[in-house]
Amino acid sequence: MGWLSSIAALGFLIFFHELGHFLAARVCGVGVEVFSIGFGRKLWHKRLGNTQYALSLIPLGGYVKLKGQESQVESSDSYLNQPPLKKLVILSMGPLFNLLLAFGIYLGVGLVGHTSLAPVVGALTPEMPAIKNGIKVGDRIVAVNGVAIRDWEELFKAIQHTQGSITLKIQRNQLLNITLTPTPKTTQNAFKEPVQTKLIGIAPAKEQVWVRYGFLESTQRAFSQLVEMCTLIIKGIGKLFMGVVNVSEISSVVGIVDFMAHQQSLALLLSIAFISINLGILNLLPIPILDGGQMVIVLLESLTGRKLKPAYIEKLNLLGLVLLVVLMALGLFNDVHRLMGY
Questions:
Q1: What 3-state class would DSSP assign to 96?
Q2: Distances in whole angstroms, Cα of residue 300 to Cα of each of 69, 71, 292, 305, 311
Q3: Residues 235, 245: contact at Cβ < 8 Å?
Q4: What is the largest CA-CA distance in the chain?
Q5: What is the pLDDT of residue 262?
Q6: Of 68, 196, 244, 330, which is the most exposed, with the fewest CB atoms less than 10 Å away?
Q7: What integer pLDDT is reported at residue 189 of this predicted model?
Q8: Mean per-residue pLDDT, 191-197
C-alpha cells in the first residue's frame, strides 16, 4: 500500500470519528456549524444547509464545531444549552465510532475469511515433547483433546488453554492419537512482564489454509479481538507513564502512514482496525481539548452545579494543546530518526 493510499485510509479513520460526533449532535438536536477533516486554513469547503464541510491544511485530526460550543447562544439547538447527558453522548460517540469500525473490520474478516498458517508441522525442536512422542515433520494436527483445529493459531491457543497432558489427533498416512505433556517456558512480553507459555516443540510449515467463520462465531471472535486490543492499548499507555515503555516508542502521523504503507491485504485491514482503536482510546484520555477532557469538564460541572468560566476552559484547552504538540513533536522526532536509520 502506498503513502497516498495510507493517507487516505488515515483520513477515513478521522472522518469516521468526526462522523460519530456529527450524527450524535444531529440526533440530540444540536446544530453543526463546521465538519472539518484536518485543522488550520481550509483548503476546500462547501456549505450544505447550516453546515460547512471542509478539508483543512494540517492533517493531524479533524473537528466538528457545534453551534454555541464556544459561546452561549440563546437557542434550543445550542450545545451549551443541552443537558449533561446529551453532551456526554455527543462527546463519546466519536471514540465509540472508532471502536465500532474496528469491530466491523474484525467481523468482516471472520465472515469473508482469510489465509492462515495450516496446522502442519514444519520443524521439530530436539528434546521436546513432540519429537520424544513420535510426531514427525509433515504431520497435520486436526484436533486437540477432541476439538477440531483449523489453523496454527487455533492449535497454539488450544495448547495454552489445556491443563496437564493433551491428546493430539494427527493425520499422517492414517489418523493417529498422540498424548503428550507440554513444557512450560517463561518469557517476557512487550511490557517486560514474565509470561508462561506452553510449548511442545513444533514450528509451522509454509502451507496455508483458508479460514472463515459463521456469523455467531465471527461476532464472538470480533468482540474478543476488540477487547484484547483495547486492553493491550490501555495497558501500553499505563506502562508508558510508568516508564516501562520507552518514549522512543511514541509515533506520529508520519510513522503511522509509513507503517500502513508497508502492509498488504489482511495485515492492512488489521492495522487499520488497531489504529482506529488507538484513535478511539486516546481521545478518551482526560486531556483538555480531547473528547475525554471535555467529558471530565461536563461531569465536574454537573456534579458541582457550577459552570467553569470560559477563561478557565481556554487555559485548560491551551494546556492540552501544548501537551499534544509536545507529544506530536516527540513522535515526529522518533519517526524521522527511525526512517533515516539512526
A1: helix
A2: 17, 19, 12, 8, 16
A3: no
A4: 81
A5: 60
A6: 196
A7: 76
A8: 83
